[in-house]
Specification:
35% strand, 6-stranded antiparallel β-sheet, mainly beta, 11-stranded mixed β-sheet, 3% helix
């Protein structure tokens, strides 16, 4: 059995409440935390922004990538560009403009699709459902599935390797907070699903241990006429998420958790009112989240803590250094210049270090680490 060393202590000039009523002589608060905002923390009050560095040397640094410039098109999800990965998580991006000629089946773990652009029809073991931009679609390990786009689709594929996706424990706020599980949609065995049960040759591309095997049929293997149980493909759209918020306190990213796996979490940032209490911090606090790597994919809107970040871009902040809002965003927060956010973003926090794929080198903004530098 293990237990964190716990000794709540106060030293020097501090605020009585984290993220609120910061001392005027040290307005830059930095959180040192363990276990991804779920463990013990310490809060420091600095005279200068903890990110006002002059230069970086070495491989560790904040990084940004513009995925809009990446060739993402293929007919199979197993040909999708791998962006970042570790033993527990695979993060890919895929553009599917035509109907998949074969079914896909992941033998390595659950797959999560996030539809960035487009719409289409998903056919799987459990039936048929229409999917559109903003949808999360959880596909359990071993499920056969295929897409017929109604318009070109761009998607994130996030694999929980040798693992499964579950919902977060919502504790004091109750199981209906953020989104009611009753909002989760499942496929239907409807007329469209039954109509695709033809006698034409079909193949299933099975990914297992990063190798592809093909199984061939003389008919559509999606030939179920019904099913029952409590395992299924499920869908939720970001528009159905009702974020936790407080007008007096800036909540940590963990409050926006959508799905959890054993070694990483997925959070969704959606539009919400900005804290209105005069003493409350109105932008994300500076933090060194030293147990997790942080990845954010920007889906839509204006991300209120970053400059020059557009839809379709990704930022990567590996653990080991402090990160937080850009200088302009911090000043705008102090002035309460914006009353609400209009961002939509997907964040992945991984317990294990992520590797950046070679494909990302051609779309990296090498100057991103300098975007926090203090102005002269």
């Amino acid at each position: 059995m293990r237990k964190w060393i716990a000794f709540p202590h106060k030293e020097g000039t501090i605020s009585r409440q984290a993220h609120a009523d910061l001392p005027e002589e040290a307005i830059y608060e930095r959180e040192a935390g363990r276990s991804g905002f779920f463990g013990p923390t310490a809060h420091f009050h600095h005279k200068r922004a903890p990110t006002s560095w002059e230069k970086w040397e070495g491989p560790l640094r904040p990084r940004a990538f513009d995925l809009n410039d990446l060739d993402k098109a293929s007919l199979s999800p197993w040909s999708a560009k791998e962006l970042l990965h570790n033993a527990s998580c695979k993060f890919r991006i895929w553009e599917c403009a035509e109907s998949m000629p074969a079914l896909a089946r992941n033998g390595d773990g659950d797959e999560l699709l996030f539809i960035h652009k487009g719409k289409g029809d998903l056919f799987c073991d459990y039936g048929h459902m229409e999917v559109r931009d903003g949808d999360y679609v959880v596909i359990p390990r071993g499920t056969m599935w295929r897409l017929e786009p109604q318009e070109p689709m761009t998607m994130l594929l996030i694999e929980a390797t040798n693992d499964s996706y579950q919902l977060p424990e919502k504790g004091l706020v109750g199981p209906q907070a953020i989104f009611d599980p009753a909002m989760l949609d499942v496929p239907s065995v409807n007329e469209k699903f039954l109509a695709q049960q033809d006698d034409k040759p079909w193949s299933v591309e099975i990914k297992r241990r990063e190798q592809i095997s093909k199984v061939h049929f003389n008919y559509s293997p999606l030939d179920a006429i019904g099913w029952h149980g409590d395992l299924s493909v499920v869908r939720i759209n970001w528009r159905d998420i009702r974020p936790l918020m407080s007008h007096r306190y800036h909540l940590p990213p963990s409050a926006h958790t959508t799905f959890v796996a054993s070694r990483f979490v997925i959070c969704t940032f959606v539009p919400r009112p900005i804290e209105s209490d005069p003493g409350a911090l109105k932008v994300p606090f500076y933090h060194n989240n030293d147990d997790f790597d942080e990845v954010i994919f920007y889906h839509a809107g204006d991300f209120f803590s970053r400059d020059n970040i557009d839809a379709g871009m990704v930022t990567f902040h590996p653990s080991g250094f402090t990160h937080g809002p850009h200088p302009k965003a911090f000043e705008a927060g102090r002035k309460y210049a914006k009353k609400a956010t209009d961002e939509v973003a997907v964040m992945i926090d991984t317990r294990d270090a992520l590797e950046v794929s070679d494909a990302m080198s051609s779309v990296e903004n090498e100057e991103y680490c300098n975007s926090w530098k203090a102005s002269k």
